[in-house]
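COMPLEX REQUEST
Ligand: UFG
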Amino acid sequence: MAILVLGGAGYIGSHTVYELIDAGREVVVADNLQTGFKAAVHPKAKFYQLDIRDRGALDTLFQAEKIDGVIHFAASSQVGESMSDPLKYYDNNLYGTMVLLQSMVAHGVDKIVFSSTAATYGEPERVPILEDDKTIPTNCYGQTKLAMEHMMGWVSRAHGLKYVALRYFNACGAHVSGKIGEAHDPETHLIPIILQVPNGQREAVSVFGNDYPTKDGTCIRDYIHVTDLAQAHILALDYLMSGGENNVFNLGNGVGFTVQEVIDVARSVTGHPIPAKMAPRRAGDPAQLIASSEKAVQVLGWKPKYNDLSTIVATAWAWHRDHPHGFEEG
Ligand code: UFG
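STATUS: Structure written out below.
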């Protein structure tokens, strides 16, 4: 029996496939390669190039493979783009998940772990954020992820599907082997953007706002290493396999760093001065997002290993320094 990883050529998906294969699991990857890279797929995983909105392709896969659980990363994930092109997010994220669930129900595949996001909360009522805090997304990306969670809930009631939603905070870092890492085009995330400066691809980093109510005025985020996220998916799948009920878990470090602090850590990791210039606030940025991941620790037995931001940034730097053009340099 195999695990199907949808979106297994993307950033978090590819890291999860590496952990699954290291743990001796059989893995089938499906990805439309719109934002993922074939080179990121572990060579021991069987690969299908397909789009989850293609019911026929999914049915063919479920008929051909013995799948006993699904991990679903296949979604669009840029907050800014979701505001300028919301229908893309309804199409890829919601409609895609609807087609996937139709195919799973038809083939009797009843366990799914999927990527949700801290963006489901919107502006937090308090930090650290708990799973049962209010979910009022402030962008279309978070809204479609929340709707995916609700869709799973209704399908569970009607058809007995079991699901775990994992709400990631700020995923970052790269695999310690240096073989895979973060590669987005365009890149919008803070750590890879900072590292473009010592890589000679950018003159300076822009700090989006220094008048937030935080210790140095810049936004606070909870940065969690991608391999720790990957491990949580395996634990969540095992939890469902051993009879666990539907559940939602935050995944973060529980510690917040300001944008300024992240830049300082990157300066010391890379030995480069990394000039920073102040820029206006970016629309929709909450001042502070920090997770309580206590539930994942207690219920799933999750033990994040990369608690130290310097180590996280060092893994990212090793990847970006050696792959300045991501997977596209051959
Ligand atoms: N930032 C800058 N300069 C940059 C890029 C980012 O100052 O060039 C700041 C942002 O304003 C923010 C922080 O760095 O305060 C982190 O920004 P990212 O874009 O790296 O990450 P976000 O916190 O905006 O978003 C992440 C995920 C989303 C997810 C969200 C949940 O990328 O998918 O967390 O809160 F929805």
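REMARKS: The pocket of UFG is lined by residues 77, 79, 117-119, 141, 170, 188-190, 193, 205-208, 219, 221, 259, 282, 285, 289 (CB under 6 Å). The chain has two domains: 2-172+224-251, 190-221+254-322.
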